[in-house]
Specification:
- With 81 residues, the protein is an all-alpha fold.
- Helix content is 54%, strand content 0%.
- Helix 1 (12-21) packs across helix 3 (42-50).
- It has one domain (12-75): 434 Repressor (Amino-terminal Domain) (Orthogonal Bundle), CATH 1.10.260.
């Protein structure tokens, strides 16, 4: 019997788009997040962008502050509508 794995929607593409729009490498972004009190490494952040790991709310809050954007930017296109 074939088992189908349902993939949850992920915001990895939006995270990548925002990071690249601010001309940051993953390394520089993680260094800035660490400076702001978010304990996150590049490997973990890469998993967020790849959709392999769900992003923590504390990281999302700090990214919104860093980018000066609304939370809608992170969820753009994920509603399927």
């Amino acid at each position: 019997m074939e088992q189908k794995i349902r993939r949850d929607r992920n915001m990895g593409g939006n995270l990548r788009r925002l990071r690249e729009a601010h001309r940051l490498s993953q390394e520089k972004l993680c260094a800035e997040l660490q400076r702001r009190g978010c304990d996150i490494g590049r490997t973990t952040y890469a998993k967020y962008e790849a959709g392999q790991l769900n992003i923590r709310a504390s990281v999302l809050i700090e990214l919104r502050r860093l980018y000066g954007c609304s939370y809608d930017e992170f969820f753009w296109g994920l509603d399927g509508g």
